[in-house]
Amino acid sequence: MQARERLVAMASEAMEGLGRSRWRVESYPRPSLAGILYGATTGIVLGLTLFPNETLRPGAKARQIVLFDSENIARWIYTYHREIRSVITCVAFYTAIMPMRRRLQRHSYKSGWGHWFAWFTAALLGGPVACTSFDSEVKAVETQSAKKH
């Protein structure tokens, strides 16, 4: 039995040495409220900045509903709509590509798998909130595994 325990310990050390985790997240949790709010907010702002001539003109329904027909906010968004759109897009793609890719590779996910695609889409839409959601899911798997042993 000691040989098996040593072998498991060596395998764990080798995985950690390669930058891999021995924990594998097999499930995809429902999006958190913070992720939904982040995605909805960025989606609305992105919608306003993608079509500023239609959404920010006086009398437009989007301007009345979202901005409460505020002239100052509409003018500010119209002035900086390219910069706002660029920041939102860059944050979304950076979060989806860099941190989530590293997290998924660390837990031995391969591109194209169903869970990988679900996490990638969540990171694209949910931004940094998806990264914290993934980390909490890994911690849940670790504690669940620790309870079994």
UniProtKB/TrEMBL annotation:
Alphabetically ordered keywords of this record: Membrane, Transmembrane, Transmembrane helix
Regions that span the bilayer: 32-51
Protein name: Integral membrane protein
